[in-house]
User: Fold this.
Amino acid sequence: MSAPARRQAPIEPWQDPNAEPVLRIEGVTKTFGKTYAVDDVSLDIYRGEFFSLLGGSGCGKSTLLRILGGFEVPDKGRVLIDGIDVTRVPPYERPVNMMFQSYALFPHMTVEQNIAFGLKQDRLPASEIGDRVAAMLDLVKMGQFGRRKPDQLSGGQRQRVALARALAKQPKLLLLDEPLGALDKKLREHTQFELVNIQERTGTTFVMVTHDQEEAMTMSSRVAVMDAGRILQISTPANLYEYPNSRFVAEFIGAVNMLRGTVVEQQDERVLVRCHDLDFDVWARYAEPIPVGTDVNVAIRPEKIDVAETEPSGIDNVVRGRVVEIAYLGDVSIYHVQTDDGFVLRVQETHAARSADPHYEWGDLLYLVWHARDAIVLAG
Assistant:
């Protein structure tokens, strides 16, 4: 019997050379005084995407979102929606809606009236307004709360009303400014999946601004990492995590151990790096040719490092050290292991078996091992 055919992954729109973006940003620049808030940003976002702009405070993500919404006009560049230049079109004339972090619900109006507000402004027939409001209440599972006012709702319920109001006008693009920032951790995690499900059901293109890496990774089809007004990398969450293109992205997305070093040898897709932080040469994977003598960073994710109590053999990389810090987080334990050279490596161990105790204790002598394929070489 022949082996079953492997499922072929569908072609995503950003991989299709014939796909037309619903949103195109061309060379957009925005300055405030001498500060570049957005610096020559170009970006295509496709219909039905849940796209996130991710970065720290002051990186330019919120300014870019406001430019997309029409609340700021760029100094240079263009914004096109479905091929139409909307760079200088006011917010109320764009096929765009924005959901603010504060939700901005009208306190004197009921839930139904809040959702209907924009539709009444557009002078839609009363019957159509009623149908859309009912559909939105059903979509966000708030049908029984239609007559309540915002102060009678929880934070999560207000968030859903704000989303329903934003979607009621059936925008081509929904902009979300830190939409879950006001929710507690448990409710935020639940709402992440809820938002993704609603986005998939409506097919609306979502563009979200967030500083929360976990939020962006959980919800997005693609993520753009921003710093100092520029986009450093655009990719899927998995590719950003496993294949960052710079030290900044590697350190911003998740936890990472970063070793500075110099390339001393290359064998096919493997390079040997002499580390400045350890008296140790590290093997890592690097597919492109790289000259000997190149200064690089080697990134190793904590969960890629295995731990042994006796020195193993036949492994690419083995470093010895002692446990100096332990953090028990329930599902995992984090160990800080100080090597003989004084460098501290972070290791993450999953609790597959039930136990109230960490696997190792302070002062334990451990051998940390990892494969070359799990070490990321970041040139430059």
